[in-house]
Amino acid sequence: DAGITQSPRYKITETGRQVTLMCHQTWSHSYMFWYRQDLGHGLRLIYYSAAADITDKGEVPDGYVVSRSKTENFPLTLESATRSQTSVYFCASSEPRQGMNTEAFFGQGTRLTVV
Amino acid sequence: AQKITQTQPGMFVQEKEAVTLDCTYDTSDPSYGLFWYKQPSSGEMIFLIYQGSYDQQNATEGRYSLNFQKARKSANLVISASQLGDSAMYFCAMREGYNTDKLIFGTGTRLQVFP
C-alpha cells in the first residue's frame, strides 16, 4: 500500500538494549523526520533527513542514531535504551514544493516502552 | 527559546458552538508557514490547515479557519459548529524559511466537545 508505515507498532525492550524502529515511505519524498511524543512536550524532533545520505539533528538527538541509505527508508536506532526513551515515536515525510505549504505525512506511530 | 507556544493544555466546548485554540510563534525569518494538525484518540496525525507568512487572507478549510495576526505572531485555529468527533489533541506547527522542510510543533491542546 502507498503511504508511510512504521514497524513495529509496539515494542517493549530492556534498559541497555539496542532497538531499531523502522520507517518506510512509498512516495519518494525527499524529507523524512523522526519525532517523539511525550505528555506535556508535544512532538519533539529527533532527527531529520533532506535526502538519502543527508541527515541532521533535531531538538533531542542524544541517544539516537539514524541512517538513510535509501530514499524510502529512515530507521531510528536507540543504541542503548534508557527508561527516559519510553515514548511514542512518529516518522513523517514531506516533499518540498514552491511555497511553504508542504504538509508532513505521518506514520501510525510506534509505542516504545523501556523497562 | 520556544518557537511555538500553545498555552491551553485543555479546552471544553459544547457541540455546535465555535472554539478557538491559541497558538503563538517566534521567528525572525520573514518566510514561514504555520500548520495545524489533529490527533484523535486513535493516535494518527491529521493535517488540517496551512497559513503562509505572505498570505494576505486567513486560511479556511471547511469548518476550520486560521485567525492569522502577523504583528502579534499568533495563528489561532477556529473550529466552527463543533462536533463530537472534533474531540482530539490539536497541534500547531511552524516551518521556517525555504531551505528546510523541518516542522517544529507546540505542546498541543486537548479539546473535548460535550453534547
Describe the structure.
The complex is a heterodimer of chains A (115) and B (115). Chain A has 115 residues and is mainly beta. Chain A is 0% helix and 50% strand. Chain A is built from no helices and 11 strands. Chain A is globular and about 45 Å long. With 115 residues, chain B is an all-beta fold. Chain B is globular and about 45 Å long. In chain B, the strands form 3 sheets. In chain B, strands 2, 5, 6, 10, 11 and 12 form a 6-stranded mixed beta sheet that branches. Chain B has a 4-stranded antiparallel beta sheet with strand order 3-9-8-7, with no helix packed on it. In chain B, strands 1-4 form a two-stranded antiparallel sheet. The mean pLDDT of chain B is 93. At the A-B interface, β4, β5, β9 and β10 of A face β5, β6, β10 and β11 of B.
Largest sheet of chain A: 7 strands, mixed
What general form of chain B does the structure show?
globular
Query: Helical segment tally of chain A?
Result: 0
Q: Structural class, judged by helices and strands of chain A?
A: mainly beta
Helix-strand string of chain A: EEEEEEEEEEE
Q: Count of DSSP E strands of chain B?
A: 12
User: Helix and strand succession of chain B?
Assistant: EEEEEEEEEEEE
Can you give the helix content of chain A as a percent range? under 10%
Give a summary of the structure in a few sentences.
Chain A has 115 residues and is mostly beta strands. Helices cover 0% and strands 50% of the residues of chain A.
SSE blueprint:
The complex is a heterodimer of chains A (115) and B (115).
Chain A: E1 4-7, E2 10-13, E3 19-25, E4 31-38, E5 42-51, E6 54-57, E7 64-66, E8 76-78, E9 87-94, E10 105-106, E11 110-114
Parallel strand pairs in A: 2-11
Antiparallel strand pairs in A: 1-3, 3-8, 4-5, 4-9, 5-6, 7-8, 9-10, 9-11
Chain B: E1 4-5, E2 10-14, E3 19-21, E4 24-25, E5 32-39, E6 46-52, E7 60-61, E8 64-69, E9 74-79, E10 88-96, E11 104-105, E12 109-114
Parallel strand pairs in B: 2-12
Antiparallel strand pairs in B: 1-4, 3-9, 5-6, 5-10, 7-8, 8-9, 10-11, 10-12
